[in-house]
Write a structure and sequence with these properties.
The chain has a single domain (about 1-95), classed as Aspartate Aminotransferase, domain 1. It contains 2 helices and 4 strands. About 15% of the residues are buried. About 35% of the residues lie in helices and about 20% in strands. The chain has about 100 residues and is an alpha+beta fold.
Length: about 100
C-alpha cells in the first residue's frame, strides 16, 4: 500500500511543476524522482543552469529541501525524490523567492 501512496505524491509534485509556466518537467515521472528546472522565457541555457544551481544551493543551505542536480538531454535540471510519506506538503511554500536571470 505504501508504494502507490508514494507514487501519488511524486505524480502530485510533477503536476505542481507542470502548473507553473516558468518550470519545466524534463522527463515523465516513472520512479520516485521528479526532474525539473526553473527556465524563465528568454534565458540562455547557461543562465538557466546558473540560476538552478543557485536555487539548489539556497534550498540545501536553508534546509528547505535536499535537491540534487543532473543533466538530461543536454539540459541541466534539478532532481527531487519522494522518500517518505511523512514529507511535508507545506515545504514548497517555504521556497525562497528567486530573481529572474534575464
Amino acid at each position: 500500500m505504501a508504494q502507490p501512496i508514494a507514487m501519488r505524491a511524486v505524480v502530485a509534485r510533477a503536476a505542481l511543476v507542470q502548473a507553473e509556466p516558468d518550470l519545466e518537467l524534463l522527463v515523465p515521472v516513472a520512479t520516485n524522482i521528479v526532474c525539473f528546472r526553473y527556465a524563465p522565457p528568454g534565458c540562455e541555457e547557461e543562465d538557466v543552469r546558473r540560476l538552478n544551481v543557485e536555487i539548489m544551493l539556497r534550498l540545501q543551505e536553508t534546509g528547505v529541501a535536499a535537491l540534487s542536480d543532473t543533466t538530461i538531454h543536454g539540459k541541466h535540471c534539478l532532481a527531487t525524490s519522494h522518500a517518505s510519506s511523512s514529507s511535508s506538503p507545506c515545504s514548497r511554500s517555504a521556497t525562497p523567492p528567486m530573481r529572474s536571470c534575464c
